[in-house]
Amino acid sequence: MDARFTDEQEEIRRTLRDLLDKRCGPQELRAAVDTPAGHDRALWTALAGHLGLPGLALPETCGGVGGTVTELALACEETGRALAPTPLLATAVLAAPLLLALGTGAQRAGLLPSIASGGLTAALAVPGPALATALALTGHDRRGQWAGGRRAGGVQARRAEGGWQVYGQVDQVLDGHSAELLVVAAHTGGFARSRVLLFLVRGDAAGLTRVRQTALDATRPQGRIQLRDVPAELLGDEAADALSALARLGGTAAACLAAEAVGAAGRVLERTVAYVGQREQFGRPVGSFQAVKHRLADAYVQVQAARSAAYYAAWAAAAPAPGAETAGSLALAQALEALRRAAAEGIQLHGGIGFTWEHEAHLYFKRAAGDELLFGPVHRLRAHAADAAHVFEEAGT
């Protein structure tokens, strides 16, 4: 394994950081989250048009750059550093890989070039608070009970004249209120022969109602979608194994989320170190006190360890390498802990100002808490990885 990044990968990181420093400062960030979409459409156009961010991990035949999960994770690290509210996670990390893996030739040709160019945003709608389970991060439900329990609730799909219709509600969909295409997981086939399939729903489809939710992390907008006999298109064909595709997607999603959390943790730690070097108490900088030095040093070590784990998870998902199914969950757990630690230290060492709306420190803490609610908790990420690796099984059992 060569752990060094290529010149092209370093250029992606450098160019993206420069652009976000100019276009996504504190004022621009707050203005973006207050818009109905929850993100700056002009910034998204720039990220897609100038840097090709949505198509980083898509093949060139589909209009993409032809990169791997590694390049996408590096981009997520920079967007996480700025807490940039963009559809990158929902579109490029969660939805596009499913279209690429399961879509028919016509579906890939019709949708992926538009996604790669930034002209089409997409979102993955998984019923209930079960996104982490669907992605096999905190558990692996081989029967898809999270999609509605095969009886009622969740989202149900049935054949209709000329295609399919879906009915149900999904409460927590990342960018679900603004995405122009929804990839909806739904049960079909009745109780006895029920199975989970994925369906494509256009954002302007008849019977679809969407509203933005009030989320703990305003930089990670979520929407509630209601489907009332909405026309839908089956993603791929009925032989597609949607559950396995979602589980494979989990490794990619975890690596990108871990890199994003590491970027955020590194940034809030940088800001805290700079602040304690300026703030004075008892006639000397707060950062000169040994107790403060120790706390920040511990946080720094934790962030660096999480960064190494995130990079390995991205490399393992791109290879793919042995243990890739557990590397993502472990890296995400470590990164979320590092972000929570760095953000908590940032709030406390900034003093009273760290708790105020005017300061950005609390936004990083909310990102850590919000991501753990969506994709964790940390102890379940680690427990599932241990189960998948058979860590606690006795030899011969």
Quick tags:
397 residues; alpha+beta; seven-stranded mixed β-sheet; 12 helices; 15% strand
Helix/strand-derived category reads alpha+beta
Helix count from the secondary structure assignment: 12
Roughly how many Å apart are the termini?
Answer: 33 Å
H/E topology pattern: HHHHHHEHEEEEEEHEEHHHH
Beta-strand content bin: 15-25%
Unreliable runs: none
Total strands: the figure is 9
Biggest beta-sheet profile: 7 strands, mixed
Helix content: 40-55%
**CA gyration radius, whole angstroms:** 21 Å
What number is the mean pLDDT?
91
CA-based shape: globular
Model description:
The chain is an alpha+beta fold and 397 residues long. The chain is 50% helix and 15% strand. Strands 1, 2, 3, 4, 5, 6 and 7 form a seven-stranded mixed sheet that branches. Strand 8 and strand 9 form a beta hairpin. Helix 10 runs antiparallel to helix 11 and helix 10 packs antiparallel against helix 12. The model has no long low-confidence stretch (mean pLDDT 91).
Question: Can you give me a brief rundown of this structure?
Answer:
This protein is an alpha+beta fold and 397 residues long.
Helices and strands in order:
Elements: H1 7-23, H2 26-33, H3 41-51, H4 69-81, H5 88-102, H6 105-117, E1 122-125, H7 131-134, E2 155-160, E3 163-174, E4 181-188, E5 195-202, E6 208-212, E7 222-234, H8 242-276, E8 280-281, E9 284-285, H9 290-318, H10 324-349, H11 361-375, H12 378-388
Helix pairs in contact: 1-4, 4-8, 4-9, 5-6, 5-8, 8-9, 8-10, 8-11, 9-10, 10-11, 10-12
